[in-house]
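Researcher: Re-running this chain for the archive, since the previous output was lost when a drive failed. Same request as before.
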Amino acid sequence: MKYPFTKSVDVTDTYFGVEVKDPYRWLEDDRSLETKTWVETQNEVTSAYLDKIPYRAQLKNRLETLWNYEKISAPFKEGHFIYFSKNDGLQNQDVIYRKQNENSQAEVFLDPNTFSKDGTVSLGAISFSKNGKFLAYTISEGGSDWRKVFVMDAVSKTIIEEALTNVKFSQISWYKDEGFYYSSYDKPEGSELSAKTDQHKIYYHKLRTPQENDVIIYGDKPEEKHRYIYAKVTEDNRFLVLTPRVSTSGNKVFIKDLSNPNAALKTIINNTETDTYLIDNAGDALFLLTNLNAPNKKVVRVNFNTPDPKHWEDVIPETNQVLTIAKSGEYFFAHYMVNAISKVKQYTYNGEFIRDIKLPGLGTSSGFGSKKDELSCYFSFSNYCTPSSIYKFDLKTGNYTPYWQPSIDFNSNHFESHQVFYTSKDGTKIPMIITHKKGINLNGKNPTILYGYGGFNISLTPAFSITNAVWLEQGGVLAVPNIRGGGEYGKTWHDAGTKLQKQNVFDDFIAAAEYLIANNYTTSKYLALRGGSNGGLLVAAVMTQRPDLAKVVLPAVGVLDMLRYHTFTAGAGWAYDYGTAEDSKAMFDYLKAYSPLHNIKKGVAYPATLITTGDHDDRVVPAHSFKFAAELQAKQTGNNPTLIRIETNAGHGAGTPVSKTIAQYADIFGFTLNNMGYTLEN
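Model: Regenerated structure tokens:
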């Protein structure tokens, strides 16, 4: 491969007396013409390579065919209407519809496909006022995390005021029909896509008033500085709840009685050592989900007037499984993960057990949420082989019926999933779900994607994916291990993959690959490692530690410079998981020892690598991927290609148009199979 020229500059940082060179620092400037030219030339080389793959068009056609089925969401009531979203098949963005009752004709309410010609302006959050009279919705341009907020008269479908701008990482929570709370940062100096954003603020926007008049509720004082602050108004309009955080884990909890205009914020928790959130209230009774003294979480009740943890009473006690909670009508639905598989129980607000919900199969359920006056709710169910279906659930009887099932050109009966447990380097047992065609020949020659994440308390549970379905149809194996750093076994499992224990995550992933090879699913020649964001860090770190392990590596929007990640946008908020190079000499040494960018060595034959990122990614800035690609291209030995695919007008992933997603996966699978020496199955 002849790669584009990437200049090297003399930039050196010193950490605890140790000098670290950063020759591609100039690629961090996303506004420079030089960086733009580099992106264009890299994309030209990558496109020329991908264009030569004979079956890329065939993969793209199959992705389009499989994708082209109607998809709808569960309905929800707001005011006098029933709303739902629908995609006819290949629409770039889902469309929101509404109807007056279950039997009436639906009309288009909001069509994000009209926001831009190429589908790169997407709909973010939507939030209706308490009586459904007004709607506030956010849009993202080019995949950026910065948002604009539009306010609409929901009945007439007309925009009623100037858009709010420069809103980021925000919920929108209405107080009655009068206004709403939202979060944002001051616009940073320099590039809005890469400059650091560090002090979140809560604002209240009164309807039909200019944004410059919005009142700061919390976050403008030095002692109120937090990287993330979210605001929520309870369903009865009684309380405002704030949850300030300095990192992605751990939060404070403050509450204000909105029925008293002179009320001050009252403290429930004033440290960020645990995760605690208000689920609901019944008058003065507050119901909280917490992992305080309960690593797997529990539901507690406390009176607003005496909210200190010493007064908490258990409603749903902690168990051996991780708990998440939904509320519907006047019931709690306790969702447990049993080795990453869903189990759901129904309780009253008093903690009285009602029933176990017998789900349609082994997989992942979600939903079970509705307002207090509802008599029913909806939930979805899927697994790696089964496309997601929606069911309507009767809150009183516990009976449910199919509400919507997809009509898709994919035969789930031809495929199977099974869970195995393998042993990691330190003896820890790790679950992994392996999916493939029935009757697979375990001859070590099956093209296999090992997909992982391993961070931020995020759990990988079984869910259907159109892109994965196409991979399975080609005879591919999909293996997804539930490695440490995730949330599958609670706070303890998460913490075991953070900071000075991050190597556990990489060891767990390496052991998963070795299990697949030892059991003849595949060999290194037919193995691909794939992950995005923190998962991009995972696969890139494993690639530098074990370049012999896999044939192909696919890091997407990865965190790859572990010494500087915290200097971009909201990256400093990830310090709970990673630590930073400034924390201590020990933390710096640890980060440098696994940072993918800093561990590429000359004279090593690394796997075929296709790095993917978006030029508008302001969460994990593309400079991570740019610098990693430049370093790898400069040092790669042997014939394996090292390419970077940079999507324009695209961000971290959310809101990416369907057309761009299909093209991207045709390239990813084409690159993977081509480097494994495969031809496609018919």
